[in-house]
Amino acid sequence: MTTDASSHDTHWSPRLWGTLVVLCAAMFLDALDVSMVGVALPSIGTDLHLSTSTLQWVVSGYVLGYGGLLLLGGRAADLLGRRQVFLIALGVFAAASLLGGLVDDGALLIGARFIKGVSAAFTAPAGLSIITTTFAEGPARNRALSIYTTCGASGFSLGLVLSGLLTSAGWRWTFLMPVPVALLALALAVRLLPRQARPERGSAGYDVAGAVTGTGALLLLVFTVTEAQGAGWTSLRTLGSLAVVAVLAAAFLVIESRTAHPLVRLGIFRNGGVSRANLTAMTIFGSYAGFQFVVTLYLQRLLGWSALEMAFALLPAGALVALSATRMGAIIDRFGTTRLLPIGVLALAAGYALFLRLDEHSGYLGLVLPSMVLLGVGFALAFPSVNIAATNGVADEEQGLASGLVNTAFQVGSAIVLAVTTAVITGGSGGGQSPQAQLDGYRPALLLVTGVALVGLVVTLVGAALSRRRPAEPVAVPDYRYPSAPADTAVEVLSER
């Protein structure tokens, strides 16, 4: 294992810090773009004369490109070189952001959003795998990943606030603002990102059939769950699409089990920590996406808050995540991901459950603030931990794959839970707009997202129980720990040094 920072390094060089800052900037922009457009949607619809069904594709187009192509992006990083893939994708992201801010046609705007999603599907796994191959597994990697992932969580949370501010000046600024940041990050990345030996194409191979079936299955799944609300969950179109997804997924598994150089080596799922981390990632991001949707509707439609008031109401959660960035690495080193993940997911579930007390006259201090504090604590603990758990114990040549898998889990979980949440709200309210009808839709939706979070809690508790039952292996340094990684991996890494 070749890294630029050993596991015990506490003082990094300016160049190493610069590398991490560049990667954090890209992750921040990716996460920012997921949440920032939401507040601007009404203004976009009015200005471009878009119907509600068309307007949803301004959001769904990004999710479709991002969630559908993440696995391919992770594998491309492993095969083509992480640095090269990151630089190209970040340049495309900047160009698509500029296009989105200048167009006057709804179809072009949706197309620009799709391209941005595709570029993010390549920058996210490439950036994460650059970190996991630059910083040695253990305290150094945990520190880097905690900073990196909290930047992503902060971008997602603070995107709502920035969107509220920028939309006041004009919705186009929500698209144009990332352009100079992306260009600056790109210029710094060319100078700072470590150059790695170009992968040997002859030894790697390209799994074209696996790429077509796997990517096709993910794209169609995200598309189907996004459109199911309009077409109907039991409609022939939805059921037929899900059947095609099942066929493509089955074909993908058969291909991956037989090809010499698979897009996804199925054996990676034999690592229980990786599998559980991906399941947990789906529940974390899925439950939060559904919760944010409910809260946005509740605060703006029922309580009549402005977009900016709502954005500042959600600020405490993002602020807690951002402020914890510099300390989470040390906390993870001390307690381990198997302990912190259940606590983080429990805090998220408790925050959702507290919001069940909503009524027609709920106040900020009594209802919103307690949930935001719990969500901030939960994300600060769970988001870095689940990313570390999803990449620990994975060989360098498969870090792009592991990174792509966990990011795919985030996006697919978000798309599925959000679609189901929307259906529950519509079914519960019966289409009525009275305060009571709206509450009848919001409460079961909140029960749903709380239940999704509790599923994630069960998965993390199983992982913690299995970790306690696993016998400890002797290592070269008695006080050293590799959270969520098999003991033999720790011995191997220490022996290599």
Automatic annotation (TrEMBL):
Keywords: Antibiotic resistance, Cell membrane, Membrane, Transmembrane, Transmembrane helix, Transport
Bilayer-spanning residue ranges: 20-42, 54-73, 85-102, 114-135, 147-167, 173-193, 205-226, 238-256, 277-299, 305-326, 338-358, 364-383, 404-425, 445-466
Pfam families: MFS_1
Record bears the keyword Cell membrane: yes
Cellular compartments annotated: Cell membrane
UniProt membrane topology term: Multi-pass membrane protein
Listed name of the protein: EmrB/QacA subfamily drug resistance transporter
Native organism: Kitasatospora paracochleata
